[in-house]
UniProtKB/TrEMBL annotation:
Coiled coil: none annotated. GO terms for molecular function: catalytic activity; molybdenum ion binding; pyridoxal phosphate binding. This is MOSC domain-containing protein YiiM. Residues 49-159 form the MOSC domain. Residues 169-209 form the YiiM-like triple helical domain. SUPFAM superfamilies: PK beta-barrel domain-like. NCBIfam families: PRK11536.1. InterPro entries: Benzoxazolinone_Detox_Enz, MoCF_Sase_C, Pyrv_Knase-like_insert_dom_sf, Tri_helical_YiiM-like.
Length: 226
């Protein structure tokens, strides 16, 4: 299957009352260079938790915006790509049919799915919805991230094409294991076995297995400890 894609990049901006962010992106057209760290002209704030080789690109399904608009009708106008700061927007690919480790061909490049996108508190500020990050996490409408397996030129008129599937774990299942289930060492082992899983998620799951505890999500979801 081939999936037409819209492409977006953005730079870091200051937001009074919140931290700097590159969530505001604009559509690109034509030929772009895709490097191991992402698209030319794209930036990430706080690179310790955003960006890097395992999080070079963010993909968000276009069809999710209709569901968010129905949930928040008074803000329906803001729910359209690339409102969640995604680089790639498609119809037909969702967390339920995209798997950890999936390799897509795009232009002259290959990209691989590494993890669900972990929603953070900046989304609450950006949309003016106090618990939006929590709702994204609970619904599993989170999108996903890629590493760049083979960098090169990409073209906004070229579709994404799935060329290899190396695990049985969907992005939705990965999110459910990490965020929705109580501590379950067997499920963590299952997710850790998914080829292509990001180093960050591998580290988090291994820590849970060592400590027998799930970390507190409060700082990521609300910007503070519980």
């Amino acid at each position: 299957m081939r999936y037409p894609v819209q492409v977006y990049t953005g730079t870091i901006k200051d937001y009074p009352g919140s931290r700097p962010s590159a969530i505001a992106k604009y559509q690109r057209e034509g030929e772009l260079l895709l490097t191991p760290l992402g698209l030319e002209g794209d930036s990430q704030a706080e690179v310790g938790i955003h960006g890097g080789p395992d999080r070079a690109l963010c993909h968000y399904p276009r069809e999710h915006y209709e569901a968010w608009a129905q949930s928040f009708p008074e803000q329906a106008g803001v729910f359209a790509p690339p409102a969640l700061g995604e680089n790639l927007s498609t119809t037909g690919l969702t967390e339920r049919n995209v798997h950890i480790g999936d390799i897509f061909c795009w232009g002259d490049t290959l990209i691989q799915v590494t993890q669900p996108r972990s929603p953070c508190f900046k989304l609450n500020f950006h949309f003016g919805i106090s618990d939006f990050s929590r709702q994204i996490q609970e619904t599993g409408r989170c999108g996903w991230l890629y590493r760049v397996v083979s960098p090169g030129k990409v073209y906004t008129d070229k579709p994404l094409e799935l060329v290899s599937r190396v695990s049985d774990i969907s992005v939705y299942q990965a999110a459910a294991i990490a965020w929705h289930m109580p501590f379950d060492d067997e499920q963590y082992h299952l997710l850790l076995s998914a080829a292509g899983l990001s180093a960050s998620w591998t580290n988090t799951l291994q820590k849970r297995r060592l400590t027998g505890k799930i970390e507190d999500f409060s700082r990521r979801l609300w910007g503070k400890k519980s």
